[in-house]
């Protein structure tokens, strides 16, 4: 039984290796656009839509609602990044229900890469919305003496993102593998179903935390996303 899926080598030539983390990350990367293409073909409008279109619209609607509730901003700017992040993680987490498949998120290298994406996205969105100097001014608030502590805070929360996701998924996979070796019937099936639930929850937590970090970097004021009139006195009666 391997505790680290990075050590599961499927093919190697000299120093170049294809391990379980790399292989199943590619599988998820190819699976997501293929599924999106299949589900988005022949889209229609009106009440008579197919089940797959209804499922696709429901997923997008849920993600848009979560983005707007968390950031209090329009979702269009953040939907491509957060949507991709959430879907990649949730598929990576639950893909291990297929026998012989290992979740890429059970590797610290995968979760660290995802956390690094969030680490880079936060200043990118922050600078795009607030500007270069106003964004970096937050690091010297309330006093310039807080600069090293604010930088340490940014790094520590990125590390926490990676460790949290890796720990939960790796431990879940390990428990299922142990139970499967001890009691190969009913109990592992229950644990697999429980693992799917945990995988979806962990993907949701990761995406929400990324949204909170982005919202803290992009918030200028508490601007309501609803389109309120700029001057109520101009309303016509």
Residue stretches low in confidence (pLDDT < 50, at least 5 long) are 222-237
The assigned structural class equals: mainly alpha
Strand order of the largest sheet: 1-2
Measured on Cα atoms, how large is the radius of gyration? Answer: 21 Å
- Fraction in helix: 55-70%
- In total, how many beta strands? 2
> Helical element count?
7
- How far apart are the termini? 74 Å
Mean pLDDT: 83
Question: What shape does the CA trace take?
Answer: globular
Biggest sheet overview: 2 strands, antiparallel
Organism: Rhodohalobacter mucosus
Function: Key component of the proton channel; it plays a direct role in the translocation of protons across the membrane.
Subcellular location: Cell membrane; Membrane
Transmembrane segments: 20-39, 78-98, 110-128, 165-187, 193-215
Can you describe this structure?
One of its GO terms (cellular component) is proton-transporting ATP synthase complex. Key component of the proton channel; it plays a direct role in the translocation of protons across the membrane. It is a multi-pass membrane protein. This protein is mainly alpha-helical and about 240 residues long. About 65% of the residues lie in helices and about 5% in strands. It contains seven helices and two strands. The protein has helices at about 20-40, 50-70, 80-95, 110-130, 130-135, 145-180, 185-220, and strands at about 10-15, 15-20. The chain has a two-stranded antiparallel sheet. Strand 1 (about 10-15) and strand 2 (about 15-20) form a beta hairpin. Helix 1 (about 20-40) crosses helix 3 (about 80-95) and helix 2 crosses helix 7 (about 185-220). The longest helix has about 35 residues, at about 145-180. The protein is globular, with a radius of gyration of 21 Å. It starts with 8 loop residues before the first strand and ends in a 19-residue tail after the last helix. Residues about 220-235 have low confidence and may be disordered.
């Amino acid at each position: 039984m391997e505790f680290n899926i990075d050590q599961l080598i499927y093919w190697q030539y000299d120093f170049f290796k294809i391990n379980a983390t790399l292989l199943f990350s590619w599988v998820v990367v190819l699976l997501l656009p293929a599924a999106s293409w299949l589900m988005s073909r022949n889209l229609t409008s009106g009440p008579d839509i197919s089940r797959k279109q209804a499922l696709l619209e429901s997923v997008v609607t849920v993600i848009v609602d979560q983005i707007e509730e968390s950031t209090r901003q329009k979702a269009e700017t953040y939907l491509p990044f957060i949507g991709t992040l959430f879907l990649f993680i949730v598929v990576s987490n639950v893909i291990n229900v297929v026998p012989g498949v290992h979740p890429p998120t059970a590797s610290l290298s995968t979760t660290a890469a995802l956390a690094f994406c969030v680490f880079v996205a936060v200043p990118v969105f922050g600078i795009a919305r607030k500007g270069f100097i106003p964004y970096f001014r937050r690091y010297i608030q309330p006093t310039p003496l807080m600069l090293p502590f604010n930088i340490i805070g940014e790094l520590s929360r990125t590390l926490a993102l990676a460790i949290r996701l890796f720990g939960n998924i790796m431990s879940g996979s390990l428990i299922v593998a142990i139970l499967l070796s001890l009691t190969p019937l009913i109990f592992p099936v229950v644990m697999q179903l429980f693992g799917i639930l945990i995988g979806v929850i962990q993907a949701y937590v990761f995406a929400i935390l990324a949204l909170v970090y982005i919202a803290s970097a992009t918030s200028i004021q508490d601007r309501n996303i609803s389109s309120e009139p700029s001057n109520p006195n101009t309303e016509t009666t």
